[in-house]
Amino acid sequence: MSARLRQRKTTMEKHQLGKSGPQVSALGLGCMGMSGMYGPSDRAESIATIHAALDAGINLLDTGDFYGMGHNEMLIGEAIKGLKRDDLLLSVKFGALRDPAGAWLGYDARPAAIRNFAAYSLQRLGVDHIDIYRPARLDPNVPIEDQIGAMADLVKAGYIRHIGLSEVGADTIRRAAAVHPIVDLQIEYSLISRGIEDKILPTCRELGIGITAYGVLSRGLISGHWQKDSARKGDFRAMSPRFQAGNVEKNLELVEAIQEIAETKGASVAQIAIGWVAAQGKEIVPVIGARRRDRLTEALGALSVKLSETDTAAIECAIPKDAAAGGRYPEAQLTHLDSEK
Is 67 a catalytic residue? Predict the structure, then answer.
């Protein structure tokens, strides 16, 4: 398998992730949906999708140790077994706690917990180092300086190569960067989730920190494929405010608004949405959540869609900032997000 992938891999544009990070492909692959977060998934198709992404030149695979309670890391470990390690960048989030039934119990980013989480991730992935390691959320009970310090020790020991952050605000970013270089912030960014533009994105640009943007299709809502009754059993989108009755209809009207623009560019709605995020700057890497090869192929097509300033202006006119109905997370979760403060 590894020889086949090396022979078929094509060239994709790469650029440095932040001022101190590795060379990363123009798109990353987010693997969360392959482990049940969006309802049942097919293991064989998931692995085939990972291989197809690598074949296409994507080198960034993003996961979390709590996706499927370790399932996602083991899936990736199986998919990359035998591949040349230097061709891959593994981005891992840690800290979220879950019980045997899958309920969320909070976050733990104590230094001892960080070392424990890292040890288990290395084992499940079957690798000797993690390329980018990041707390999934800010643990309010542990100073960010202590969290970054613990990860810095793992860097010195060779277990992780780079430190990233996820869903934190500008003040936390500055405090973290004062302890150790931060290569990127992973945060939601899309046509209907543009909150980072006020303070967070300018801070990252000032400090030379990259952005790995998840939710570029707002979990499928602005993909052009979503219908208001698409959520299946076990799909957490069924509880998301933007997918609720009364909101989802208004949000799908926004999708219709950019359909005409997509047609003039000979592109799909999803490709326009991904292309818009990519057009915001080379320091921003859209992380696509494809879990099937056909969706991956469509997303890759976004790289061929060239958006002019006139195009982006038309897109932003069709979907004005703050046009979405409903929050990106339930209110109870938003109140705990450092990035929302």
Answer: yes
Reported pTM: 0.93
Look up residue 86 and give its two tokens: 């230097």
CA angle 129, 134, 136 (to 5 degrees): 135
Question: Is the pLDDT assigned to residue 183 strictly greater than 90?
Answer: yes
Confidence of residue 3 (pLDDT cuts 50, 70, 90): very low
CA–CA distances in Å: residue 190 to residues 123, 223, 307, 315: 34, 11, 15, 12
Place of tokens 């002019």: 308
| Total tally of structural domains belonging to the chain | 1
What is the reported pLDDT for 41?
A: 84
Q: How far is CA 66 from CA 47, 136, 166, 332, in A?
A: 19, 10, 14, 20
Distance CA 59, CA 28 (A): 7
CATH code for the domain in which residue 282 is found: 3.20.20.100
Domain that holds residue 253: 2-340
User: Average pLDDT for residues 184-208, to the nearest whole number?
Assistant: 97
**List 38, 67, 189, 214, catalytic entry:** 67
pLDDT by residue (tens digit) across 258-275? 898 999 999 999 999 999
Alpha carbon distance 28, 17 (integer Å):
12
